[in-house]
Amino acid sequence: MNLKRNVWTAWGFRALRNILAAGIVAGTVCSAQAQAGAPEKEVTFLLAAPPGELAFAPFMLAQSKGYYAQEGLKIRWIAVHGGAAVGKQLAAGNGDLGDALGDTPILLRNNGVNVKAVALLGGHPLHQFITRADRNIAQASDLKGKTLSVMSYEDTSYYVTLGILAAGKLTKSDVTIYAGGPNGVWQDVANGRSDGLVGTPEWGARVEAAGVKVHYRPTDQLTPGMGQAIIASDKKIASDPKTIAKFVRATMKAMTEIEADPVAASKAYVAAVPSYADKLDFVTKVLTYYAKYVFPSRLRPGEFDLAIVSHVHNSYVDKKVVRAAQPIESLYTNQFIPGKM
Predict the structure, then answer these.
(1) pLDDT of 131-155, one tens digit each?
(2) Which residues are CB-contacts of 336 (< 8 A; sequence separation ≥ 6)?
(3) Contact 77/28 with Cβ under 8 angstroms?
(4) d(CA 324, CA 330)
(5) pLDDT, position 319
(6) What is the percentage of the chain residues whose pLDDT exceeds 70?
(7) In the prediction, which pLDDT does 205 show?
(8) Phi, psi of 223, deg, nearest 5
(9) 171-175: long-range contacts at Cβ-Cβ below 8 A with a sequence spacing of 24 or more?
(10) Phi, psi torsion values for 81, nearest 5 degrees
(11) Fewest CB within 10 angstroms: 96, 212, 219, 330, which?
């Protein structure tokens, strides 16, 4: 694999960038004030990218609508470089909860990073395989000699990319993979530097907004995968289950509202996030995609399906993305899903 770049371009939330004492390259946003007089418990939540990414709309809407405050929580958001990095920081004690994919514990527990998924944001994969229409990529085997972009080599999108390559009987040496950060990942596709990307739906929408036609494929058409997830360390799950349950409950409330009415959710989002104030049509397009193709599930909001987790896990093992199998029950828990606790 030709790793030509691992540079993060400037994040839209420049004011968020700080170097924390824990050594995390990060950005913080103070949460909305909790209801007057209500007890507050500060929760540090690690995001896999800057909070302005629309993938985080359930979190940002739960905050702006006061759902976390209603649970007595005050959230401090910190952005790190990808879901794998989120898990490593949580296991090291540098945060309470975080955002990754449901796949992430499969990747990390193999390396002794003991994190577990505690809620799943949707019944379908977050990541999409998005390719330029003019590059003639109809199947995974067509990627030989091509160039793909991911957010970072510490993001789960990179490991999903390895699974896609394996589906085409290719390896990472058959392609060039750029890691461009949350802006470069789609800009490289828009300007033709990359033939496609593996990432969130909004990155494809940004390429289209630049005038380039793209094809979307949910990644589970090529390799098993799961949606965005809330993750926590084993230690945090054992020591503070009530806080986790409160955070999950508030987040699931916002997610189900987006799924039920993405148009209304989009209006609420642009009202809450100033950088999107003049981008209602774009936000509506993206959140409608989430409502139709990512969030729907036959299970309760947030709940994991044992069969799907097992299938994804076994695929990673079979394709040698991870070295060894892990006990399936160590990868996730449904104990915090509303109605369970």
Answers:
(1) 999 999 999 999 999 999 998 887 7
(2) 118, 119, 241, 244, 245, 248, 302
(3) yes
(4) 14
(5) 83
(6) 88
(7) 94
(8) -150, 140
(9) 172/1, 173/1, 174/143, 174/144, 174/145, 175/1, 175/143, 175/144, 175/145, 175/146, 175/147, 175/148
(10) -95, 75
(11) 330
